[in-house]
Amino acid sequence: MQITEHVHALKIPFQVPVSPEINIDRFVNVFLIFGEDICLVDCGVASADKVIFDYIRSTGRKPEEVSLIIQTHSHPDHIGALQTVKEQCGCPVAAHASEINWIEDVELQFSERPVPGFHSLVGGATKVNRVLNDGDMLDLGGGIELEVIHTPGHSKGSISLFLPNEGVLISGDVLPIPGDLPIYEDVLASVDSIRKLQQIDGVDVLLSSWDETRQGSDVKRVMEESLQWLQSIHESVIGTAANGSVTDPMQLCAQVVAKLGLPQIAANPIVAGSFAANLRAHKSRNLLEKDVMQDD
Fold this sequence. Notes:
Blueprint (H helix, E strand, L loop, with lengths): L6 E11 L5 E12 L3 E4 L6 H11 L7 E5 L5 H4 L2 H8 L3 E4 L3 H5 L1 H7 L5 H4 L8 E3 L4 E5 L2 E7 L8 E5 L4 E5 L14 H12 L6 E4 L5 E2 L1 H26 L6 H12 L8 H12 L16
Parallel strand pairs: 3-4, 4-5, 5-6, 10-11
Antiparallel strand pairs: 1-2, 2-3, 7-8, 8-9, 9-10, 11-12
Helix pairs in contact: 7-8, 8-9, 9-10
């Protein structure tokens, strides 16, 4: 779907097999920036290459015109088709330094973060050719510039991308969606990153990986709701842990999931890892205070 003159979004549906009987329906958005060549932002899950290439052809362009792939981070639903897309297009891959190990060694990622169905979601490891840093300006040709914004929290090397000429902000998985699975490594960094995005002037369109396109006044509203959701989660985790009756991380996770009204399937090791990040930030009862204390 075309969003602005140069930016297109593709919704990639997939399933996460959490048990032999149960699959979770999910989706992830990938983005295409059409200039003199094509810049692809994230690659979706394995087999998404067909959806991406078919869409490019439907616009009258060719997959061979993809001259750069930017990964907002290294999680399976973002790098799944990366190996195939890079091989077919012969283009470089760019990512933040903190994400490179998991992109170039997917078995390392699986050993450190064993997502259910990992190997059905990820096609294989891929070499990263360019390291992106906060503040980098990428010239995509045709007057199109892309600013790199380091926005850690969801992962250490998560980045967002801003196209100032079109007022488009691509935020990857930086913004947690109220009522959806809370997934982050560092909750304080997540808050700081959302605040960082709130300070960008001229954002007219917000493109998140897990959400629909947001425009106009919805942009600031969604960012603020993400902050409030993080605070609600934090209060539930700290409050549940405070009574001292729950010491097992998965039991804590199950109780917090129930308090938040999330589906039972959310009581899983990945979400439990997010709640562990809240426990590490227990000295900061209110995450939204301007000066919160980050724990060592």
